[in-house]
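dude i think i finally got it to work??
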Amino acid sequence: MRETAVESLGIVRRGLPLLLIAFAVDSAFIFVFLIALQSYLPESLHTSDAIAGVALAAFGGAKLVTQLASGFISDRLGARRALILGTALLLIADVSILPLAHVAPWLIVGSAAIEGLGSSVTWPALYSAGDQRFAQGEKGRFTALLTLATGGALAVGIGGGTFLNSVASFNVAMIAPVAAVSVAFMLALLLPTRGALWADPGGFSLPAFSEMRSILSHSQRAAFTALVLVEAAALGGLTAIFRAYGRDVLGVSLAHQGLLLIPTAIVGALVVIPGGAIADRIGAKRVMVPGFALTGLCLILLARWSDTTFVMATAAVAGLGFGLAVPAIASTMMSLAGATGSRGGVIGWFMTMDGIGHVVGPVSAGLLLAQFGPEAVLVAAGALFLAAAFIVVSSSIGEEDEARIVMAEAMAIVAEPAVGGRS
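look at this
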């Protein structure tokens, strides 16, 4: 037990710069898109409510279409330089919001697009750096800490933003996201420049076709691609019917609905770290299968019964299952990225699939909601989580076969005809 605690403390110490960057970037994002654009602009500056929605769409679109390319940029620049570039773009975007809000508010949509580009560069580099920095038996705990950092950012962004909205003007409050991203930028600059973990490549070159083919042709990566798509679609669908479920199925106010889901949030947060540690000990596959299956079954049950006590307990069990699975998902993504020069590209590919799932899920949920109601969406989301469990069971995902991945990549590159080479 003491040895495990010491190992975990070592993971926190080595991963602290990356965890702080993730926390700062997410905190700024939440404040800008949930507080500044949705509260300050319409209430204080009397701008159109539509700006927030269009800006968020611009962010998501820019991030989605550049995610894969940004992963390869991370490979070519190195994790440290890519983190510097990504956080610099985020800083430019957040700094530009304040003057644009007073001069031409609709131009904030352009700032949101720059923010999407910065995010697409930052996150593959951050995961790539974590993959380099932590051994196979440590990745689950690192990704669990990363999940907690995101959860902390959500609490700080919403809680701190709500407080600032009640006591400070827009001009003053915008110091908060700018300061947060400035901290992330400074941390990226202060990352070590020497050593195998942080050394930057000697030059920039475009990715060869064989690198892209190795992402698509490997069986584990193909299966994980399907897993990411169905899991993201399920989450996106649930997000799209959040209020409709409380209003139409439970018949409760938004505040009451939030109280019912507090146990879910608490249980999910409490099991994230144990989930990462268990995945490191027994393998990600043995954690993801029961986690996804439990979540899926609970969602199907929630579509059948609406008693508030039952809903509270069942949703908490769903939070338990998903909280266990989350670190294993991220650690598996890092493991499947392999140890070759296309690590960032592979992570960028999986993040692109996650983005597509988060688009397809809400759209499909909207259609189901209109025709059959929230219960149908809950059943569909539960079925998708069960499908995710089946994908893991029927494939070799999570079995830590990195050596075979690296060998497959090497064979693909050797087999690729040397036509023109890299530019």
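DSSP finds 17 helices and no strands in the chain.
im so relieved honestly
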